[in-house]
Design goal:
The protein has 260 residues and is α/β, with parallel strands linked by helices. Strands 2-1-3-4-11-10-9-6-7 form a 9-stranded mixed sheet. It has a two-stranded antiparallel ribbon with strand order 5-8. Strand 10 and strand 11 form a beta hairpin. It is globular, with a radius of gyration of 20 Å.
Length: 260
């Protein structure tokens, strides 16, 4: 990021459940992306600009130009993981390695991009009882920026149960662990470094419950966005190896070594 420039955020939402299921449409009439984006804008204020992208747009709204102008991407998907084009996944993956942050939400754990970044199945245990159940989100790293300004614990009255074992690499930084009424626990706030980019996974937020309207959840997501936006561009990115670079900085393949 350039100092003094707004953090450019793209909120990506599959936007399938809200258009096809009345129970979800009642909770999220404008799509789940709306309260997610509204929370980011409220919490980060003038320091952020937010755009929305959805699965049904050309190239899923994630063209090369759009991603080049994105510092942090948030990702919510569930019903249509397989419909995300592989070339778009590759494009997003490359941008993360180059320094773009990504915040993966809830069932995005099974998205192509998250599995690509993790290199594992990302499978987990889950239970979705009618009416949901209470989730208690415990902060296990209160000094982490993602935990800033959040109560201990965060209580979500109704949510889907996600439980261990969660097949992910050991997080580089673990911020939250959730517990559920059935006694299950889950690593619900995980951080990773991939190339020059940062990855945050935050699990609360099933489509059947108004979790994304909850201010504490919105604050946690905004904190994830801010943390992911702290990633720096790689100092050996291809654009740095341009014709404008001083010739002494490197030796072209096949060229004789320079002597002074």
């Amino acid at each position: 990021m350039t100092a003094g420039r707004r953090l450019r955020v793209t909120v990506w939402n599959e936007y399938v459940h809200e258009r096809g299921e009345e129970s979800v449409k009642r909770i999220y009439p404008d799509g789940m992306h709306r309260p997610i984006a509204d929370g980011i804008r409220r919490e980060l204020g003038d320091g952020v600009s937010v755009r929305i992208a959805t699965l049904g747009e050309p190239e899923h709204g994630l063209t090369e130009e759009a991603l080049a102008e994105t510092d942090v991407l948030t990702w919510w998907g569930h019903a249509a993981h397989d419909e995300v084009a592989d070339e778009v996944v590759e494009r997003v993956h490359q941008r993360v390695l180059e320094g773009m942050g990504i915040v993966v939400l809830h069932s995005g754990h099974f998205s192509k991009i998250f599995r690509r970044l993790m290199g594992t199945s990302c499978a987990l245990r889950w239970r979705s009882d009618p009416g949901g159940e209470r989730e208690v989100i415990w902060t296990v790293n209160p000094a982490h920026p993602i935990a800033a300004g959040l109560p201990q614990p965060i209580v979500v009255t109704h949510d889907e149960m996600y439980g261990e074992f969660f097949d992910i690499p050991t997080p580089d930084e673990l911020v939250f662990i959730s517990s559920f009424e059935g006694g299950e626990v889950f690593r619900s706030g995980c951080c990773y470094y991939r190339g020059a980019g940062r990855v945050a996974y935050f699990s609360p937020g099933d489509q059947e419950y108004p979790v994304y309207h909850q201010p504490e959840i919105q604050r946690a997501i905004a904190n994830c966005v801010a943390w992911c936006g702290g990633a720096a561009a790689s100092n050996d990115a291809p654009e740095r190896r341009s014709g404008n670079a001083p010739r002494d900085w490197f030796i072209e393949p096949g060229s004789p070594a320079r002597t002074r």
